[in-house]
């Protein structure tokens, strides 16, 4: 099999895809096409993983009671987080829309199966956290694939993992990595919402590079 060639046009389009990937909190009510959703999941499962362990586990959350359990966890954790800031920053925090849990047509929980025997432990004896990092690569791949299909993804981290795990009734060896809202964005922006609303400016990429 001949490896594909990725030319200048592709590289420019890929750069657009990465730059326009947004953390979406405002969704249209339109349903997500099943074929697009499954295609994004299939691409996510092509992600690299330590020892080829493929530890990611996806749970589509459709039951109203289970969704409400997640929403309740978010609302409690969100209130606690706001209380942890001083007055000005707390007011700014409360003005932010930090989740689209009530609007998003698809809820997708992503877990790492830390009890998996796949991969036979290769590459994680000294860094067992590599299993979780592998799940994160699948999340990012799903995110980019969703954007390429015109879908938006919002990563909700203001949650209690134990409460979400209990609400979804998953195996004990599974650890929550992400809770994603998926759907068509209600609006499009080139800049991240937290930048647009003055929470935190984006740093230049060079600030992340250290030479030794």
What does this structure look like?
The chain has a single domain, classed as NADH Oxidase (3-Layer(aba) Sandwich). By secondary structure, it is of the alpha+beta class. The relative contact order is 0.22. A 4-stranded antiparallel β-sheet has the order 1-2-4-3, sandwiched between helices. It contains 7 helices and 4 strands; from the N terminus they run H-H-E-H-H-E-H-E-H-E-H.
What's the total number of strands? Answer: 4
**Could you give a short account of the major beta sheet?**
4 strands, antiparallel
Q: Over the alpha carbons, how many angstroms does the gyration radius reach?
A: 19 Å
The residue fraction in helices comes out at 25-40%
Spell out the CATH superfamily.
NADH Oxidase
Broad structural category: alpha+beta
Q: What's the end-to-end separation, in Å?
A: 39 Å
Number of domains: 1
The number of helical runs is 7
Mean pLDDT: 95
Strand arrangement across the biggest beta sheet: 1-2-4-3
Assigned CATH class: Alpha Beta
Question: What letter string, H or E per element, gives the SSE order?
Answer: HHEHHEHEHEH
Strand content: 5-15%
């Amino acid at each position: 099999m001949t490896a594909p060639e990725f030319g200048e046009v592709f590289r420019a389009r890929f750069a657009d895809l990465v730059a326009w990937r947004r953390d979406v909190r405002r969704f249209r009510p339109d349903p997500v096409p099943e074929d697009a959703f499954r295609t994004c999941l299939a691409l996510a499962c092509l992600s690299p993983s330590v020892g080829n362990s493929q530890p990611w586990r996806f749970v589509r959350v459709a039951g109203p009671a289970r969704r409400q359990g997640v929403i309740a966890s978010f609302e409690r954790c969100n209130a606690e987080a706001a209380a942890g800031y001083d007055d000005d920053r707390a007011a700014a925090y409360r003005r932010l829309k930090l989740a689209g849990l009530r609007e998003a047509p698809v809820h997708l929980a992503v877990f790492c199966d830390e009890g998996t025997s796949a991969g036979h432990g290769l590459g994680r004896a000294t860094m067992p956290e590599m299993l979780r990092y592998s799940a994160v690569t699948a999340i990012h791949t799903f995110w980019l694939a969703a954007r390429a299909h015109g879908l938006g993804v919002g990563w909700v981290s203001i949650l209690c993992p134990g409460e979400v795990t209990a609400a979804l009734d998953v195996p004990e060896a599974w650890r929550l990595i992400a809770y994603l809202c998926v759907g068509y964005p209600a609006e499009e922006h080139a800049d991240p919402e937290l930048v647009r609303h003055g929470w935190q400016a984006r740093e230049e990429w060079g600030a992340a590079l250290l030479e030794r």
